[in-house]
Every structure is written in C-alpha cells, then in structure tokens.
Amino acid sequence: MSNAYDAAHRRSLADPEGFWGEAALDLHWYRRWDRVLDASRAPFYRWFPGGMVNTCYNAVDRHVEAGRGEQLALIYDSPVTNTIRRINYRELKDEVARLAGMLAGLGVGRGDRVVIYMPVMPEAVIAMLGCARLGAIHSVVFGGFAPPELATRIDDAMPKVILSASCGIEAQRTISYKPLLDRAIELARHKPAACVILQRPRERAALIPGRDLDWGEAMAAATPHDCVLVEATDPLYILYTSGTTGQPKGVVHDNGGHLVAMRWSMRNVYGIQPGEVFWAASDVGWAVGHSYMVYAPLIHGCTSIVFEGKPVGTPDAGTFWRIIAQHGVAALFTAPTAFRAIKREDPEGKFIRNYDLKGFRTLFLAGERTDPDTLRWAERQLKVPVIDHWWQTETAWPIVANCMGLHPFPVKPGSPTKPVPGYDVRVLDEAHEPAPTGKVGALVIKLPLPPGTLPTLWNADRRYVESYLEEFPGFYKTADAGYIDADGYVFVMGRTDDIINVAGHRLSTGAMEEVLASHPDVAECAVIGVEDELKGQLPLGFLVLKAGVNRPPGEIVVEVVRMVRERIGPVAAFKSATVVPRLPKTRSGKILRGTMQKIADGQDFRLPATIDDPAILDEIGEALRGIGYARGKGAAG
Ligand code: COA
Ligand code: AMP
Predict the structure, then answer these.
(1) Predicted local confidence at residue 488, as pLDDT
(2) pLDDT(609) > 60
(3) Do 473 and 555 sit in the same domain of this protein?
(4) Is 566 exposed, middle or buried (0-12, 13-18, 19+ CB in 10 A)?
(5) Can you give the pTM of this predicted structure?
(6) Does residue 637 fall inside a structural domain?
(7) Which ligand 1 atom is the nearest neighbour of the CA of 173?
(8) Does the pLDDT of residue 389 top 80, yes or no?
(9) Mean pLDDT across the chain, nearest whole number?
(10) Measured from the CA of 400, which atom of ligand 2 is nearest?
(11) Fewest Cβ atoms closer than 10 Å to its Cβ: which of 344, 379, 485, 628?
(12) How far is the CA of 536 from the centre of ligand 1 (A)?
C-alpha cells in the first residue's frame, strides 16, 4: 500500500522538475528560475538556473517582514562560561546587516571568499549569514585543525578577509585561536587583506596593526547592508573535507538548490514546524553545523540552539537534558559518539530523570553508523524515536533517513532506513552491475543528485569528476559500501576509501601517512582506523624505520604523534603508533591495510591469496598485542 513517503519518493525520481519546482515555491525568489533543472552540461547539473535569490533574506529578513521579528532565532548556551544569550530574528537581522556592511567596507563583494575560523558562538552564525547577505562565499574552518591545514584552505579559497576570535572554550582548556591563525597566514602563500578578530573576555589576542581589526570596533563603525541579489547557481559556501590525499576537497554548495533542500528537509525529513526549537549539537566547522545549526532551522523559521560545550564534562552527562528541558527543544541532532560518551558516564540514565523532557519528540543521529547498543540505550532512556540517518558533507542533507514528516517506518537497528526523496540509491557490484538484494556492494546514487548537493569542487571540476563520477558512469560514488534489504532498507557498512570516522569527524588516513612519511627515520608507513568504544574509530600508525636507525622506537613514536597534532590538529586524535620490521603487501606492492585492521580489531580475516609473505602477518599481530590491540579471537580463515 502506498504512503506519503512512497508517493514522494516515486514522484521525486519520475518528475524531479515538478517535485522540486513545487518545493521551491516555499521560498522567496527575486526572480523565478528559467528551468528547474539544467542537464545540458551533464554530468554537471544545475538547479534553478536563471533564478535570483538571497539565502540570508530567506533565513532572516523574510521572518521579520512576516511579523515574527520577536521570535527567538538563536539561543546560545555555553555551560563552561555559564552564559545563555537569546537573539530574536529582529536582532539577528540588525547584527547580520551590520556584519555585511563591515565586510563591504573591507571591499568584500559578491563572489569574494571569506574564511571563518571561529568556535561555536552566535558571531560565527552571524558571520556566515553576513557573507550570504552580500553574496560572498564563506569557508568555515573547524577550530580543531592545526595551522598547516588552515593554510591549505586559505591558499585554495584565497579569501579577501578572515573572520576569527581570540579563543575557543573547551571543557578543560581555553584554545588560543589567534596564534594559530597568525601561524597559518605565515605559512600560506595567499595573504588576506584583513582579519577581523572577536576579542572574547576570557582571553584577548594581540592584533597586528595594518592587518587585524577589532570586531567590536569594526561592527560599531559599519553601515548596515541590504541583501544582494545572487544567481541561484552562485556558490553559497565552500566546506573543505578530507579527500584521499593531504589536499582537502573544497565542496561547494549553491544558493537556490540549497535553500530548497534545507527548507524541504526540515519539514519532511525532520518533521519540524516553523517556530519550534531545533538543536544540532555539532560544530559550525562541520556539515551538520552548516546545514542544521545555521541554514535549515533559520530558513524554516525555527529557533536554533548554538551550543559551545560537550555532551560530557561541561559540567556533566546531564547537560544535553538540561538544555532540552530549559529551551524546549523539539528535536536533537548529534553523532552517536556523543551518546556513547553519555552512556559511559551515566549508564543508568540517572541525569535524565532530573529533567522534564515532555516536549522532546525525536533524536536524530548521523556522522557514523549508529551501533544497535547505542540505539537501544537511547530509545530506552528517552522513550522517543531514535533516527539514524546517512549523509555526507557533499550532499549537505540526508541521503537515507526515516522521514519523520512523511511516513515514519519501524526502525531496523543498523539501518538509516530508506532513500530520501530526490535520491535514487543503488548498490553496484565489482562488475558495476546491480548487486542482488542483501548483498554488499558500492553505494551509489543515480545522477542527477537532488538540489542542495554539491554541483562541483571549488576550482576543481576535473577532480570532482574523477573523485565522484568517473568510476560508475551515470552515478555519484558515495565511497561507502552497503546493501539494501528486501524491504528497501539501506544498510551503510563503511568507507571503501582511506577515510576513517573518529568521533563523527571525517579524517583521511592518507593525509596522516603523508605526515608520518616525512619523519627522517621513517622508511615506510601505514595508518589504519581501529575500533574504539567511544569514538567509533581511532587512527593507528605502523612505522618501518630506515636501515641503520637504532634510536629507541618509543621516541620516534612520540615524535610522529606530535607531528600529526602539529600538522593536522588535535581533531585527528592520533595517539598511537608501533614500529614493525616490514608491512604486509600484495605481490604488486599494495599495503594490506584492510587485513591489518582486522588483525587489530581481533576479527577473523581471509589470508589474501596475493600476499608476498604470510609470516609478516604474525609480526604485525605481535606488534599490535604489544600496544594492547589484536586481543580478540581473530585468525586467518
Ligand atoms: N577547537 C579546537 N580544538 C578542538 C575543537 C575546536 N573546536 N574541538 C575539538 N578539539 C580538540 C579537543 O580539545 C581534543 O583535544 P585533546 O586531544 O587535547 O583532548 C581533540 O580536538 C579531539 O576532540 P574530540 O574529537 O571532540 O574529542 P574529545 O575527547 O574532546 O570529546 C566526544 C569526545 C565524544 C565528547 C566529542 O567528540 C563529541 O562531543 N562529539 C560529538 C559529535 C560531534 O560533534 N560530531 C560532529 C559531526 S555531527
Ligand atoms: P561527513 O562528510 O563528515 O559527514 O562524513 C560522511 C561519512 O560519514 C559517510 O560517507 C559515511 O562513511 C559516514 N556516515 C555518516 N552518517 C552515517 C550513518 N548514518 N551511517 C553510517 N555511516 C555514516
């Protein structure tokens, strides 16, 4: 029997122009599009060409003009500083217009890039919206990245201006952002014309005369700026994400298609009404922060929580419940790792009983697979639907989900449920043929991708095609493996490339290997992701030393751990490595990372037929046992 989900999904694929053309009517357009979908340059597809819009107008001004200026837009909650700040739509509009004016005063205009390197705070949201107001393209860089990573992004995006803050506030320490920014600008070839620095009371930064401006002073001197008309196909932002090399990919999202997808998904995927309070407990530096802390809730006219804290330790494992109760949160979106952290500290859920959560309807989890234990624990404790959903920085909104606003299906643990309308998800085998039901293969999406997804990579059309479109012609390669069962539920099993997922953060082991390989004593190396109870996966390095090196291996390990922290950042959570005599390889020289991972996790593995010398696997097992891994029953089968 057909239901609202089936009808929507079927129509979105059979008549994408009709489906998304109607969805687009929910937004404000200065000029209607010429076509809903332009496929004339396939595989480069464009949504709503000819349309003129402004994302900031739709996220802010539109609500004020509709008489909802007094409704709260943002609630900033910072448990470490004991601060709660409420900003309504009218105030948000004033701040954003002023910020846009400040940027315009610094020569920023439509199409110019602005890098935002800030912690989670309202000013970061205001900065993003201020760029959107001017038609400038923002690129937010996560604060846990080290200066060389920030420098790479500055060189690729070539911003006119960088917006930053003096410091970020973590549970146990204050992170000085300004020295990291100064170092990154030193390392970068491209130099911004100006940096505007928000001085936070906890730590004031030294400003460099002639380049740095004080945020407060610059805002006070600025003239508010109105919304600038942009093409629907103009980029709204670039968000860098890990690729298979040290060079991150600049994922682009445009204005028109993104507006439509954000609005549509709030109602239909998340089941949220305008005026409700939505909370994405993420960081502005990640895709979840962009889409569901900033753009989607505001475009939909909701109140969004801006949380500068952690699920545990700020101050305790009850913080999430305190915020839900105090601010009337209807739905929370976070990563499973956050729930594993809470469960570890409060397995009985005692903190939950201290709060009245009756307005709380749904918990959404993404960023990594939700393990069935965590799912069941969260369901038992919260007594609301717990919805795993699958998406990527590249899509900006869910590919597979249980669409709460259309037709909720029974949850199957381990599956994010069914393809979201707009996404034609298939499983292909090694011969690129459709895999049988229930059989694992490459998860791909038939082109065109729906609105809001990446039209290309920044300044890298060729890399876009090579990375996503070339291997399976006519399809977008998600680089995840999985299967679809007889009921149409999709199961996502893990990446097919060298990306690992650490606490919901996407990291490239290839990038870490580049760092290890640059150590003067290292001849060869490999990095794999090993299972971790809290973070899902953790990186682990293997080092083969150059002939003649006879320093204590422990010293070299300490050095490479420090190097990864200094070059990639604390977010990599690279804390262990081991020295081995050699690496297992196929006869053609390919390192058997998958087999090493299985040995480390204590899983059974098949002895690869092409391995040059199976005895190496015993050496690897021994080295791993020496650092506390490979303790399970794993054996060659
Ligand atoms: N700026 C600077 N440094 C940061 C940072 C930021 N914005 N965010 C994290 N870091 C640092 C941390 O201080 C930590 O440094 P350390 O090695 O000195 O301890 C390191 O980066 C790793 O951070 P994190 O992965 O957050 O680990 P954690 O041990 O501090 O916390 C969790 C573990 C599970 C509580 C945490 O990962 C979490 O809350 N996850 C929620 C999920 C999430 O945000 N997912 C994103 C996509 S939805
Ligand atoms: P990011 O681009 O950081 O959002 O990371 C995207 C990757 O995270 C995906 O390609 C998956 O490997 C993984 N991922 C995200 N959500 C899920 C999920 N619900 N289930 C399984 N894997 C997920």
Answers:
(1) 98
(2) yes
(3) no
(4) middle
(5) 0.96
(6) no
(7) 13
(8) yes
(9) 96
(10) 19
(11) 628
(12) 13
